[in-house]
Amino acid sequence: DIQMFQSPASLSPFVGDRVTMTCRASQSIDTSVNWFQFKTGKVPKLVVYGASSLQGEVPSRFRGSGYGTDFTLTITNVQPEDIATYYCQQGYRTPFTFGQGTKLEI
Amino acid sequence: QLHLQESGPGQVKPWETLSLTCTVSGGSISSGDYYWDWIRQSPGQGLEWIGNVHHSGDTYYTASFKSRVTMSIDTSRGHFSLKMSSVTAADTAVYYCARHPARDNWFDHWGQGTPVTVSS
Q1: In this predicted model, what pLDDT tens digit does every residue of B8-35 receive, in sequence order?
Q2: Which chain A residues touch B113 with a CB distance below 8 Å?
Q3: Does A44 touch chain B (CB under 8 A)?
Q4: Chain A from 85 to 104: CB within 8 A of any B CB
């Protein structure tokens, strides 16, 4: 199975900061990475698919990038509503697998 | 707006069968454009993809669960289901249902999740 490694485990930015979290795959997966936002008591939300495409009405302050094994999710001008845990997921090969998450605490 | 809602018992006894249902509203579960998936999240294992079911009845189960999982779909009632047999404490988790576009490999809509505890 393809393993996904996320870092850091947590981030504590100030409102307005720029944050970057990373996801590394155990083998090359082209651009088959997706990012999800998990908030307590809320429905999980797809934020970025295909490494860099924003889903639906996700604010433009979110940006995904990367190719191969290394991927990043960047949030510029972090807002209080961005408090969540973010997970990457590879869709390159079944079984689809997830990283362990990066918790954003403001 | 598509809405997925999991339902089932919050507690199951060891070695019994866990049964969960996901009711889909605001969209058709009969579309061949989507798979309907189950994912769980536990403190020990993190997020794990269990597998999916298609409106045709085709299923895919990951190797970790294949021997004790059955998924089914009832298009007339707009829901799909998960049965997991011989549960142990390791199956204690929050169980999510999700939609998965057939041409893509991501989950674009999720349910809120339902917690399940395996305990006698």
Answers
A1: 999 999 999 999 999 999 999 998 899 9
A2: 44
A3: yes
A4: 87, 89, 91-92, 94-101
- Give the model's confidence band at B39: pLDDT under 50 very low, under 70 low, under 90 confident, else very high: very high
3-state secondary structure of A79: coil
> Which residues have a Cβ under 8 Å from the Cβ of B5 and sit 6 or more positions away?
B22, B23, B25, B111, B112
Pairs of residues, one from chain A and one from chain B, whose beta carbons lie less than 8 Å apart:
50
Distance from C-alpha of B107 to C-alpha of A87, rounded to nearest angstrom: 12
Phi, psi of B78 (to 5 degrees): 70, 35
| Other Cβ atoms closer than 10 A to A77 | 13
Phi, psi of B61 (to 5 degrees): -120, 140
- Residues with Cβ within 8 Å of B77's Cβ and at least 6 positions away in sequence, in order, are none
**For the residues A12-33, what does the mean pLDDT come to?**
97
| pLDDT at residue B43, as a whole number | 87
- Cβ within 8 Å, pair A89-B63: no
Amino acid at B89: A
Complete DSSP assignment for A9-31: SEE-PPTT--EEEEEEESS--TT
Amino acid at B94: V
